[in-house]
Amino acid sequence: MNPFGYAGWVLRVDLEGEEIRRERLPPEFVEKFLGGLGINLKLYRREALPLSDPLSPRNPLVLGAGPLVGTEVPGATKLVATTKSPLFSRGGKHFVDGAVCGGKLGVQLKRAGYDHVVMVGRASRPVYLSVEDGKAELLDASHLWGKDTYEATDLLLREHPGAGVAVIGRAGERGVRFAMAIVDRVATLGRFGVGAVMGSKNLKAVVVRGEGKVRVAREEELSEVVRGWRKDIERNPILPEWRVLGITAGWAAHSPLVREGVWEYSKWNDLYGPERWLEFKGGANSSCWGCPMACRVDFHIREGRHAGLSTYTGSYMLPARVGQRLELEDPRDAVALLDLCNREGMCYFTTSQLVNWVTRASKKGKLKERLERSFETYLLLFRQIAGREGFGGDLSDGWYPAAERLGLDPEDFEEGTGLFRGVDAIQDARFTRLHPQAFSHLTSPRPHHGGTQSLYTVPMIDLQVLREVDARDMGLSEEELSRVFSGPTGFNPGRYARYAEDRMAVYNSLGTCIVHALWGFLGLRYLNLRQAAELYSLVTGREVGVGELRRAGERIFTYWKMANAEEGFTKEDYRCSRIWLLPRRTPDGEVVLRDYYAEVVLSEEDLERFLGDYYRERGWDESTGLPTQEKLRELGLEEEGFRLPSP
């Protein structure tokens, strides 16, 4: 009989031999690694060859949905993709990624009878993986190859109505290293190259449909808890506006912190504020499976040169950010570039930032090529990047290869948002300030702002609320609280980040959405580790407390860090981007790196001190930035056999 909360099966797909088999989900994996991200990492490392080429057949791609996915828990839809990123860090290193998406693909995977899918090798021809109620097969994708993501999704849904679909576009087919998969039209998976890995395997899509039900140990009790939670969600005073604008409902609070300093803030607000976006809004917001928040938005342009264009996104903030970055005064131009990235299947932020970089360099005379800062030039370069053609094709391998070809140093790109392990940061900490989410760029294997969001990502939350709500709901002891909430900045972002990262590992392993973790300051029920422990216990029948869940998160995060150490990543590879330490000149004045409450200007020495505090809080070796053998034994990881490459 399948365990409660789990389908109990792993699907292993050998694309080269076109062999498919299902394997029992090892109980010891469940006990120590929960599911989702945690078990993905175990399955990945079982197949992977450290230091191998990410675009070779030796690089596995693992998909996983945690034990809460497919239950009635709000927001429990997350699917995790684990693979080695094709993006180059300094020294030619590649990190092991753990990308997350919403939609319904993860739910359909659980309902089809699987918790995880492991794909290895390379197919000899274009194929897609179809999974329907336990039956899996590789089907011919020659009629889909070359089609954009929306066209391919439409064709696949005609053949597999109601399925969850992850599909790549031309960028993935041609190995653009920041290509991603588009999931159910409205979600994205893997801005760090999941799409390129799929393309290297001749895998156009993964299509899953199931009619099964996830078994729950204490179904009536779970339903009662969920009913109470949903009532609190409906009481959220922000919800009515949220259901219209999605995440952009927080524009007034968040937009000053995520601007990029190109225009005066007042100009950006006039050109791209919520009132303008309503002019391009399509129909009603969509939601991930079973989620009441409905934050997925779409665009439909009704007039002008882009009339008739329709596209999807998770937030209006995306084109608003890129529009300012590229100085596009017509928001419809920014939407058109978003649509191109969606259809080609490549990261909108990285594509636009690379184009921003080279067009600014050209304007300053640092390139022999003359590249105008205009929509027409941007459109051409975006298309060339997707097709690996012309000058734009020089950008398709990402920052460091492009820098070498063009003779530029991306660390001198003062208008940029910062570069971490070969990835451009989505948010610049000089604007957002150094909360734990921003700090995790210096410590997390995945150099991304996502997953560690919590109350502190809402600007200027009262210090007592952070301490007595957010931190306490992670189960921090009085001794831990006293260490975290200390020093001249009110709290220590390094010490705090340790617990935020462990919590992120729990959420991504259970399959819950961090949007539901943002509302504790309203006094309503919200997603936190105490709530997660209760939900996990009710779903699986395995009683866990917040402390045990915290320890699982620490184990998963530590395992992830060590998997990246096997790829050659050292403490030096996690250093802060030089750009964050320089003043940013803007039309509204100079912006520098400050603490969360914008009271203290932070120096490189401050960051080093916070890093030391972070390593001490984890019980890691400060000299290497890695777990000690004692810590590995404490977490039950001493027998994993991690092998670090020679210096």
Pick out its properties.
about 15% strand; alpha+beta; about 650 residues; six-stranded mixed β-sheet; globular
Verbal overview:
The structure is a single chain. The chain has 25 helices and 20 strands. A hairpin with a 2-residue loop joins β7 and β8 (135-140). α1 packs across α2 and α21 packs across α24. The longest helix is centred in the last third of the chain and has 20 residues, at 546-565. It is globular. The N and C termini lie far apart (48 Å).
What percentage of amino acids are in beta strands? 5-15%
User: What kind of assembly state do the chains in view correspond to?
Assistant: single chain
By DSSP, the count of extended strands is 20
Number of helices: 25
Rg, rounded, reads: 23 Å
Structural class: alpha+beta
Strand order of the largest sheet: 2-1-6-3-4-5
- Uncertain segments are none
Question: What's the short story on this structure?
Answer:
The chain has 25 helices and 20 strands. By secondary structure, the protein is α+β, with helices and mostly antiparallel strands. Strand 7 (about 125-130) and strand 8 form a beta hairpin.
Give the topology.
Layout: E1 9-14, E2 19-24, H1 27-33, H2 36-47, E3 61-65, E4 79-84, E5 96-101, H3 105-111, E6 116-120, E7 127-132, E8 135-140, H4 149-159, E9 164-167, H5 170-173, E10 181-183, E11 187-189, H6 194-200, E12 203-209, H7 219-235, H8 239-245, H9 251-258, H10 265-272, H11 274-277, E13 297-300, E14 310-313, H12 317-325, H13 331-344, H14 348-363, H15 375-387, H16 399-406, E15 419-420, E16 423-424, H17 429-432, H18 436-439, H19 463-471, H20 478-484, H21 493-510, H22 529-540, H23 546-565, E17 584-586, E18 589-591, H24 604-618, E19 620-621, E20 626-627, H25 629-634
Parallel strand pairs: 1-6, 7-12
Antiparallel strand pairs: 1-2, 3-4, 3-6, 4-5, 7-8, 9-10, 9-12, 10-11, 13-14, 15-16, 17-18, 19-20
